[in-house]
Description:
385 residues
Amino acid sequence: MRLDPRKIAVxxxxxxxxxxxxxxxxxxxxxxxxxxxxxxxxxxxxxxxxLAIALTAPFTGAVADVLGRKRVITAAMLAVxxxxxxxALAPDVNALIVWRxxxxxxxxxxxxxxxxxxxxxxxxxxxxxxxxxxxxxxxLGGFCxxxxxxxxxxxxxxxxxxxxxxxxxxxxxxxLAWLLPRAKSFVRSDxxxxxxxxxxxxxxxxxxxxxxxxxxGVLFNFVAVFTYVSFHLxxxxxxxxxxxxxxxxxxxxxxxxxxxxxxxxxxRLGRRWFILTVIATWAAGALLMxxxxxAAIVAxxxxxxxCGMLCQTIATGYVTAIAKDGRSSAVGLYVTSFYVGxxxxxxxxxxxxxxxxxxxxxxxxVVMLAAMAxxxxxxxxxxxx
Length: 385
């Protein structure tokens, strides 16, 4: 069977975007020690990139609806190499925050527009499966972005780890430029004003709004769990090194396995019941991480990673199914909500960590999951595909 180069390209886009986005996560305890700051303060470098993404995502979608998909994706993938290299040379936390913010500005043209490209170029019945391939690439990129700097920190320092990621990003940009064809089914908006009007119409669609809210919760929980588990395991009695902290993110790879199955599972169970089951399993995984054994924490991380990737695949695929016009702006709004959730997932659990440690962080995650379940139960009635 011939392998579709478009699928390799969209997986590469997901890989490179998430390779960059979560790159400091395994290094946070080491960075906090080097720069002499606390957990909540160093987590600002995660908030900075997520906030930048949230600010620019809708406008990225509007621009892509006018300029075209491939041009925007390729340019952003080449440009994102610069702030990754800049972060490697940052002399202090403030400089690191600035480079991370710039990096965040460049990521929406990659993932928001790639998801819109999927919605344009594949038949509706195939979109969940292709979105799953994109999420699988994202999962692998998220793992490599954490694991590689974690290992290299113990060998050559975190700066060398960031430079290695910059080189990988450049290679990915060249692969995508070669393999991704220009969109054939793309319907160009007349101008930015027309695209903006389409974006406003998306905000009147109840199912889109519900999906945006679920996206908010997905990244809130992802960032909360995978950021503060590093501090939990870096502290006594665990005392994990940067390499070990990077290694626990192998749990993230489960998303690479399960995400492509999403289309098959949605077709059989229906969107509403499937997402409710996934959210319930996610809550069980979060609670499991309150147990002291490392094995229990790792098992909980596996469940959280799998369920988070499934929720993300369901939501992104549904956005492209609902939005018939102005898909880039519809996905851009989803990305904004998603990354506002991510920025809050770094900020608010930091306050919970200061007040009550790891149990307080998990309690906040479970409350967010309950809110997501309520939204899905009410908004997705009758949503079978």
